[in-house]
Design brief:
about 200 residues, little secondary structure, Pectate Lyase C-like, two-stranded parallel ribbon, about 5% helix
Length: about 200
């Protein structure tokens, strides 16, 4: 698949490009907001100045991709391989990553404003509204004062997590483990707690 084909499909409303092989493709300046690129092969791809905000890049191969000046705000980079990618000037504010994500050795994702989704992660005051974190392990994480409006945390582990004063309006917490979690002054208006474990 080449750049013209992707643009044509995106313009037609297609948003799921999961597993697609785009290695070596020139996608500089492309707008692919909120697309699904789950486990896509983007190695050696030119994504200079591309808009990938909100994109799902879970498990994607971005090894040696050029992401200079790319916008990755709110994108999901969990388990993605960016170990040799070029991130000069890239915007990773509120980008999600986990302990399996590989970044270049000289790159600090936390300093770039990205959020680590992991046990005991520090996500105080984070804006994760509308993000899908189904089955995420956030045991003992600090989510105090976080904006979790319409977040999806189905079957997630939030054991002993700090959710003090968090906004959980219309959050999907079905099947979530909230045992021992602090929900003091949190707003759960319209939240779904079906089969959630709220025992201390």
């Amino acid at each position: 698949m080449n750049a013209d084909e992707i643009i044509e499909q995106y313009t037609a409303g297609e948003r799921d490009f999961s597993g697609t092989d785009l290695s070596g493709t020139n996608l500089s300046g492309i707008n692919l907001q909120r697309v699904g690129l789950w486990r896509a092969n983007l190695s050696h791809t030119n994504l200079t100045g591309a808009n990938l905000s909100g994109a799902d890049l879970f498990g994607a191969n971005l090894n040696e991709a050029n992401l200079s000046r790319a916008v990755l705000c709110g994108a999901n980079l969990s388990e993605a391989d960016l170990s040799r990618s070029i991130l000069h000037g890239a915007n990773l504010r509120a980008t999600l990553y986990n302990e399996a994500t590989q970044f270049p050795s000289n790159f600090n994702p936390a300093k770039a404003g990205a959020y680590l989704i992991a046990p005991h992660g520090v996500l105080a005051d984070a804006n994760l509204s509308g993000v899908d974190l189904s089955k995420a392990n956030l045991t003992g994480a600090n989510l105090s004062r976080a904006d979790l409006w319409k977040i999806i945390l189905k079957d997630a582990s939030l054991r002993e997590a700090n959710l003090t004063r968090a906004c959980l309006i219309r959050a999907d917490l079905e099947g979530a483990d909230l045992s021992g979690a602090s929900l003091k002054e949190s707003n759960l208006l319209g939240a779904s707690l079906l089969l959630a474990n709220l025992h201390s």
